[in-house]
Amino acid sequence: MSLILFKNARLLDPSQKLDQIGDLLVEDGIIVSAGPNIGSQADKVENIVDCEGLALIPGLIDMQVYTGEPGDEHRETLATASLAAAQGGVTTMIVMPNTRPVIDDAALVDFIRRRARDTAIIRIHPMAAITKGCDSDQLTELGLLMEAGAVAFSNGDQAVMNALTMRRAMSYAANFDALIVHHPMDQDLARAGVMHESELSMRLGLSGIPSAAETVILDRDLRLVELTGARYHVSQISCSDSVAALRSARSRGLNVTSAVSANHLMLNENDVENYRSFAKLNPPLRGETDRMALVDGLADGTIDVVVSGHNPQDADAKRQPFDQAAYGSIGIETLLTSLITLHQSEQLDLLNLLATVTQHPAEILGLNTGTLQAGRPADLALVDLGLPWVIDADRLTSKSKNAALDGRRVQGAVIASYIGGKCIFARDNIE
Question: Alpha-carbon distance 18 to 38, whole Å?
Fold first, then answer.
């Protein structure tokens, strides 16, 4: 029996509406109790961690992480992504199926799980593809993939363009309560563009991607959810019209959830000025009105989850003319600090923000983490909520350095991360 006591912590747990000074007791990697004066009741504690008033929160769950493994390990591996995740307080990450080969077979799901077990320091769960190769009309064997360990089904950053195929996928998934996770972006409307379609895109001489490219697919999918009764999650939204569509769908009782990336909450299309390719994202950064609509949607509960959208790209792919540069930004290491910064700058409730990266993704995916409740794994993050720092992409742990938030002043930093009560990362200092 191994006992660990985290004492003098500010315990923050959205699942219990908990925000108080207290202690947390862990036995053999499982949380025993959390609350005031726990330490005075614990006998034979072998290891005591004095949190000195810092925040102790459930380890984060990042629902959208792209890696290069298998096939493009020069961009990122499961091992390097997990190291970056630990430094950002992320203890569970969900990896997308857009690899080479695509994760569209039960053997490949098993490969990801075994590879993560052998090389990663955090918990990793794979999503599997909806269609073969993420680009065809042939459905994968969703039932077999789910049995193999896939937590949900997605084509990553590729939309299922064929409406009949999507209807069949939803109907198939509804039979065994599987989750469909979709990236709503009409490929025909988006193909010619590289940034948000606006006055700024015209001034920069860059072709635009209209907001309608997102809402056309989203509106179609919401109709199909009504038709099939499937569980449906929008992997990322970027514009005010999408927030309105989801708010309407939820008012009608549809079983839909949605996510937004931290980058889309922190940045807008103006960050593309000077042809900054690190800010070339999919979906693109929209206008400030759209960004504020996303913030409002987060505040009122229309948006359930915040993701990093971690999508590493090497220097050769990013340091190109803007229209030729690859899409994507790293962000798993800065996910939590982005939320803390939003809490400070936008006056958003801290527990509600933390729920978007702990309680809500755990509930959506059926995971037993993301909480400080007794009987759950002691996956934790110790956080200094007030520590200011400047994001320096070159000093981040990810194998690739394409951070859209590079140079931003932020607040809040992870001091230590724990899996099952075992410390997997401890920070000496932050400059």
Answer: 15
pLDDT of residue 37: 82
Measured in residues, the chain has a length of 431
Identify whether the C-beta of residue 140 lies closer than 8 Å to the C-beta of residue 106.
no
The domain at 3-56+377-426 falls in which architecture? Roll (2.30)
Inform me whether the pLDDT recorded for 16 exceeds 80: yes
Q: pLDDT over 90 for what percent of the chain?
A: 93
SS3 assignment, position 418 = strand
DSSP 163-205: HHHHHHHHHHHHTTTPEEEE----HHHHTT-SEE-SHHHHHHT
Q: Is residue 284 a contact partner of residue 214, using CB atoms and an 8 Å limit? A: no
Structure tokens at 257: 């959830």
Question: Whole-angstrom Cα distance, residue 361 to residue 276?
Answer: 31
- What is the distance between the alpha carbons of residues 259 and 275, in angstroms, rounded to a whole number? 27
Residue 146, CB-side half-sphere exposure with 13 Å CA sphere:
18
Structure-block tokens of residue 290: 């759209």
Reading the block at residue 406, the tokens are: 């590079």
Task: Spell out the alpha helix ranges (H) of 187-287.
Answer: 187-190, 199-204, 212-228, 240-251, 262-266
What tens digit of pLDDT does each residue of 170-208 get? Answer: 999 999 999 999 999 999 999 989 999 999 999 999 999
* Domain 59-365: top CATH class: alpha beta
* Cα(236)–Cα(214) distance, integer angstroms: 10
Q: Could you read off the pLDDT of 38-61 as tens digits, one per residue?
A: 877 667 787 999 999 999 999 999
State pLDDT tens for residues 51-91.
999 999 999 999 999 999 999 999 999 999 999 999 999 99
Band of residue 431 on the pLDDT scale cut at 50, 70, 90: very low
DSSP state of 327: P
Locate the domains of the chain by residue range.
Answer: 3-56+377-426, 59-365
pLDDT at 342 over 80: yes
Sign of the Cα pseudo-torsion (188, 405, 125, 170, in order): negative
